[in-house]
Specification:
The protein has 216 residues and is mainly beta. Helices cover 13% and strands 38% of the residues. The protein has one helix spanning 2-30; strands at residues 48-53, 59-63, 66-70, 75-78, 89-94, 100-104, 107-112, 115-119, 130-135, 141-145, 148-152, 167-168, 177-182, 188-192, 195-200, 203-207. The strands form 4 sheets. It has a 4-stranded antiparallel beta sheet, with no helix packed on it. Strands 5-6-7-8 form a 4-stranded antiparallel beta sheet, with no helix packed on it. The radius of gyration is 25 Å and the shape is globular.
């Protein structure tokens, strides 16, 4: 009897192993991806730097030769004639209210009724001034620039979005800032010179060789 029970257990174990293998094979096959190439035939004519899919489903593509919007069939190009300060696209961001923001090598812009408008960003406007933009659910914007970290609070109720005013964040080292990343809790990571900085609850921490982080 014990021999039969042992055989039954061994048989059940191998059946479980077989079932597990079949399940894993199905899962792995379900995770396979197919890729399609998009290029000149679809209207995309240059190297891609940034990608963003907005809440309407459009795919925005930032390149060194303009901004492209893909509707599922064709790419539509946006350039200087559409209000962009420059055709060199550095970053693409969609804020909590659905507004599209574009960082170019010539400055910051946002989309308004299918046309872009330039946004002033303190004393870093112009060529090679700004690099990245992020925003939180409260409507605060952070922009990395060649001279430091910029922030803009949401416009007070009743005032136009055009009243958005950027200023340098107190306590953040002045100098080149790049690579801003906003955490869900509102803390902000960014590259500050050759170090990494964290802005949290109004205080800035700098991470470098003393904290185990190499330069660069």
């Amino acid at each position: 009897m014990e021999c039969l029970t042992a055989k039954f257990r061994r048989g059940a174990f191998w059946l479980w192993c077989l079932s597990w293998c079949l399940t894993m094979t199905h899962c792995l096959s379900a995770q396979s991806y197919s890729f399609k190439h998009y290029g000149h035939d679809e209207g995309l004519t240059t190297t891609v730097n940034r990608l963003l899919q907005d809440r309407q489903g459009f795919l925005w593509v930032g390149t060194a030769n303009g901004l492209f919007r893909y509707d599922g069939q064709r790419f539509q190009r946006f350039g200087l004639a559409d209000g962009l300060p420059s055709v060199g696209i550095r970053d693409i961001h969609e804020s909590s209210d659905g507004t599209l923001w574009i960082v170019t090598s010539g400055g910051l812009a946002r989309l308004d009724h299918n046309r872009f408008e330039s946004i002033k960003t303190a004393d870093v406007d112009g060529l090679e001034g700004v690099f990245d933009i992020v925003s939180d659910a409260r409507g605060r914007f952070y922009v990395s620039s060649k001279n430091g970290l910029l922030m803009a609070e949401p416009a007070p109720s009743g005032r136009s979005r055009g009243d958005l005013h950027f200023s340098f964040v107190n306590g953040v080292p002045r100098g080149p800032v790049q690579g801003a990343h906003l955490e869900p809790d509102g803390s902000l990571w960014f590259g500050c010179g050759q170090h990494l900085c964290l802005l949290e609850n109004g205080r800035t921490q700098v991470f470098g060789p003393e904290q185990g982080l190499p330069d660069d």
